[in-house]
Amino acid sequence: MPKKTKINFADIQLLVMDVDGVLTDGNITINDDGSEGKSFNLQDGHGIKMWQRAGLKVAFLSGRFSKPTKYRAEELEVDYCIHGCIEKLPELKKLLAEMNVPAERTAYIGDDLLDLPPIKYVGFGSAVANAVDEVKEAADYVTKRRGGDGAVREVIDLILKNAGRWQELMKRYQPDS
Which fold has domain 10-173? Predict the structure, then answer.
């Protein structure tokens, strides 16, 4: 369970997350031709799709511009993919204004110091298990799983279950009785 809760989970409308170190393990492969490769966890991806089926919005907010991030966002039909922003809080504020979603109804997942201002700003801030200490200390919840190893799915499941949305989503996976 969360360390502290600033919000009722049922009020959360938007999940914003960092990419490198959260959706990935933080490693970046640079190929001989200069192209970049990343590995994304399939359970995290499925969790994002479940989040969307619950009628909720999702955004990526990454400090690095990356084609693999863009492709993953497109594949998952993520509502917003903002990357290449070093100062995340101003970008987050612009996003929330554009989407007309209050900070209190927003969840954020991060791992490094660039994520500290957004984690403190939103209604529910999470840090992955391998986040830097300062981010863990500021977070409302610290995952058991590491970034790139199902940490995003852990946060999504936590929110959906505590918001009372889980059972409806599970109907899709239940055999006909």
Answer: Rossmann fold (3.40.50)
